[in-house]
Amino acid sequence: MSNATIKDIAKAANVSVATVSRVVNNGPKVGPETRARIVDLIETMGYRPNINARSLVTNKSSTIGVVIPDVADPFFAALANSVDKVARQHNTQLLISTGQLSADSELEAIKLLLQQRCESIVIHSKLIPNETLIKLFNDNPNFVLINRYIEEIAHRCIWLDNIEGGKIAAKSLINCKHLNIACILSNYDIEDPSLRLKGFTEQLKESNQDIDQKLVVYAEPTLQGGEAATQQLLAANTPFSAVFVYNDAMAIGAISTLEDNGFSVPKDVSVIGCDDVLLSRFSRPKLTTLQYPIETMAHHAAKLSLNIAVNVDDCQPQDASHPSPDILPSLKYTPVLIERESTAIKTD
Amino acid sequence: MSNATIKDIAKAANVSVATVSRVVNNGPKVGPETRARIVDLIETMGYRPNINARSLVTNKSSTIGVVIPDVADPFFAALANSVDKVARQHNTQLLISTGQLSADSELEAIKLLLQQRCESIVIHSKLIPNETLIKLFNDNPNFVLINRYIEEIAHRCIWLDNIEGGKIAAKSLINCKHLNIACILSNYDIEDPSLRLKGFTEQLKESNQDIDQKLVVYAEPTLQGGEAATQQLLAANTPFSAVFVYNDAMAIGAISTLEDNGFSVPKDVSVIGCDDVLLSRFSRPKLTTLQYPIETMAHHAAKLSLNIAVNVDDCQPQDASHPSPDILPSLKYTPVLIERESTAIKTD
DNA sequence: CAAATAAGGTTAAACGTTTACCCTTTTAAT
DNA sequence: ATTAAAAGGGTAAACGTTTAACCTTATTTG
């Protein structure tokens, strides 16, 4: 019933398999009444083409792969979801493979996807070495790298300007007159935290401010990590009136811990996050954060990977305050500061 | 290079394809030195079997499908993640297909997965009619339904006792002396909200309490939905001192709106959520909620679907206060109340 | 009215595996 | 010394498609 093959249909319709194949694929060379008859049969016999057989001969899979560390993380889930939307618009099936934040797993995930004959893959990899990736990308013209920049394959990297992000955060905190500023960063061995820190400290230096090394702490980029990092900060006993946090989850964990310890946000300490996940609009206090346009970026990446013309409108909107320096669609995205309630001008 | 076929290996090793196939699949009938030689060649020539060709002949896919409404929802992401963990333990690739909360899409998603030759599928469907599902399950012995109970296929349904959940919530609120209790429910056309409401009102009746129909409102089960529902509640101008909310996202949206309107939680109104997503431990105030053991359930579902013996330890722990009535591993799970800070005994 | 073209098909090879069945050589048992 | 069995390996069909190449019958063109 559900496993009728093309031959069964051909026999029932009294035509060759080629003809059936043509109606299935909307090919030419088949008369209207024959087509109608076959369409009918396909419907009533519940025929569905065997993807494997098809892929075997066409060497295509109608499948787009996504490699992310973890499906459960909202940030990566948003990424995958965005790719999924593009995929379903183009009759493409989404395949997700998780890299678990280990170089071996990431590579394994890619190979798995390759084995499934995905010709397009959007890869979020932080741990595979540049050279390996470059080699991989040279063999596979439809791979796209998201959230990472490698010069040699720059035209297939969709990335966020982390340095600029750090600068924007610093500017905002400086404007609020903060002098003792802490940093909570991810302890994952990836470049994002250090780039953000770099931009942040550079900007601080422009105002002749320096960052106290005791005030930069590292932890897992999760709610719990934010909690742990904040406890560490508190234990150091070095006063601070503001903290720049690696992501929103950590920021919310930080706020939670701060308040548990009698500090009010933003009265006693200002907190600025990064990512602008949906939640940051609903936390108490509402979170000031750097918007990471991951959905747009993932959308862009998916289209690039599928070789679909990228519509300028789909990309980061030209913002008067943050004009993109490149011709659109640019592969570089810049975060935008979203000011809400967790930051304030320093009092006392 | 990366697309060497089994024939290439055979030629290089000076053996037949059958022999190569045997070493790839750890089959018998191949001598140790031949095996070593072939393994070597496979490595150096970067051979990876073509999954499509293999599936075509074996009619198996080493793939487990998951149908969920949406990847971006943390609840479903947790579900998928849990299935993924089981899958990778058993060398199985995860395939996610999204149902978008429409019966047609859900069915389409299943068919897509079937077309990819997934023999095992974990399905989260709320909208496909019972009969359709029953038929589908009779044809496909490895399908498992999660978060829904259909009597005819009960042995393949992993579900949560929503009625009991409603009762537990009601008891807790009654214990806190609340008399005017509101309900915020999902407006999706699924049975969960009505079952929870049913349990809730039944329990209320046992204490001779009744629920004011003006105090039960419906909205999207999201942060924004919680916001909207609460505004509706506030607009009705009927006082209430507690609210039972369909899920944690809505609950957090509700708290946010309540506080924006000058009500303090839990002083002025108690809020009880449902799901116990990670976030509920980090919201302000920390959320009292019904724990929905979705990870365990999904783990269980994945194993059931893959025909893997389900370990009793993996299932819901026997809790003295909530003994499971069935022999473990039970397919029915019961939510557990997690009391945190968003509920309190009624004052004034 | 012949020739050219279009329309609607068919045939068969190819895709890369797995596996039942067959064959040969070596080893063990009598 | 014979024979049986075991070990190691080869052959070829089959899985369900797509598609180039070919064929036949109308239809158009000059």
TrEMBL record, chains A, B:
InterPro entries the UniProt entry points to: HTH_LacI, LacI/GalR-like_sensor, Lambda_DNA-bd_dom_sf, Peripla_BP_I
Signal listed as a keyword: no
HTH lacI-type domain boundaries: 4-58
Top-level division of the source organism's lineage: Bacteria
Keyword line: DNA-binding, Transcription, Transcription regulation
Pfam families in the record: LacI, Peripla_BP_3
GO molecular function, one term: DNA binding
Keyword DNA-binding listed: yes
UniProt-recorded name of the protein: LacI family DNA-binding transcriptional regulator
Organism: Shewanella electrodiphila
Lineage: Bacteria, Pseudomonadati, Pseudomonadota, Gammaproteobacteria, Alteromonadales
